[in-house]
Amino acid sequence: MFHLRTVVLTSLLCAGPAVGDFLVEDAPTWRGEVGTSWYHWESFSSASMETGPNFPTNEQFPSGEALLFNFGDGAVVSGDGNIYGFGGPLNIHAYAYASADVQQVIANISMHGTELLYDQVMLVWNDGIEGGEEGFLFADVSMNYWEEVDFGGGIGAIANVSYTFDLSSVSADIREIGVMFQTAGAHSSLDAMAIDLQTVPAPGVLAVLALAGMRGRRRR
Questions:
Q1: Integer CA distances (angstroms), 46 to 38, 52, 212, in order
Q2: Which distant-in-sequence residues (6+ apart) come within 8 Å of 66 by Cβ?
């Protein structure tokens, strides 16, 4: 068993497909607009809860507004900066925080090796108030890219998937969300992840947008 693990570990740490980003990403059309946030991880520095969070690698937004942890045991950070589940399945929690009511969340995940439990990817939410409102929901997976790959000692896959969580019908003022997922077993590698949030702009922003619209109509 140890020999098999060593073979698989070496293959996953050194294999060419571990590119550190998405092959196909389902990015929302509204990314970058007013009232949106985007957090992107393509390189990781921590493989366990004990060693702390992983902050987003994009610099568009302050990194402290999103955190990613692996709660699974026996994981390591590969030479490509992936989180590799050497001793067991990965258990990933990615949290993001908003200054306005979250209406929609799109999560993109890139994995190599042992696959995700695709139907168990869950979004949890709360209103940011201790003892306040909270809930959870699931969404159907969108398989954006899938390729069967022999990583040495076992058959796995390169998979890029996305999930769209619609929170617009939730009456609560949602300020904190978490995307949680696990893999089906050991020898899985988290290559990249992205979370996009779409919120209701604050009243002051809405007023500015309305004023800009009125000025535009006057010019016409």
A1: 21, 6, 45
A2: 37, 39, 55, 56, 94, 95, 96, 97, 195
């988290």: which residue's tokens? 190
Q: φ, ψ for residue 48 (rounded to 5)?
A: -150, 165
**Threshold 0.90, pTM exceeds:** no
* C-beta separation of 43 from 20 below 8 A: yes
The pLDDT score that the predictor gives to residue 152 is: 66
Closest by CA to 111, choosing from 178, 202, 204, 21, is 21
CA–CA dist 161, 121 (Å, integer): 11
Q: What is the largest CA-CA distance in the chain?
A: 74
Mean pLDDT for the chain overall: 85
How long is the chain? 220
Q: Which residues contact 121 (CB under 8 A, 6 or more apart)?
A: 107, 109, 138, 139, 141, 163, 179, 180, 181
**Amino acid making up residue 130:** E
Q: Do residues 183 and 111 make contact, with C-beta atoms less than 8 angstroms apart?
A: yes
Report the amino acid identity of residue 26.
D
The CA distance from 156 to 61, in Å, is 34
